[in-house]
Amino acid sequence: MNARALWQRLKSIRHVEWIVLLIVVGIAGSVLMQEGAPLQSSNTTDLEKRLAHVLSAVEGAGRVEVIVHTLAEEPAQTVGAFGTVSAQKAGEKPSGVIVVAEGAERLQVRLDLARAVQTLLGLPASAVEVLPKQKPP
Fold it and tell me: What letter would DSSP give residue 77?
């Protein structure tokens, strides 16, 4: 059975467009959920711990929590002498950071924290977000 005959047969089913749309939405939703999974992880990485420790030392920052979103880098290949090719191990490259700090209500503290993260990780300002920590009720 070719694709055209299959499509004609599917079109004869009532509301096939809605069924196909629901399937596509379901697949897209599951892909998006998988991509967002690292942000929902409760495991704190060494990088996040080190960043939180350094950033909490910034004057006025108070207690700091950090989440670093990373993307896997492609393995790099280098060509050495005599045409040998060696693959370097793929690492993870930080692509975005969220900092939540007690003192981030003050603009100067927020700017200092953002600038420190940008410098330490080599990220653009658009990849760093500094937010004030919620006060307990």
Answer: E
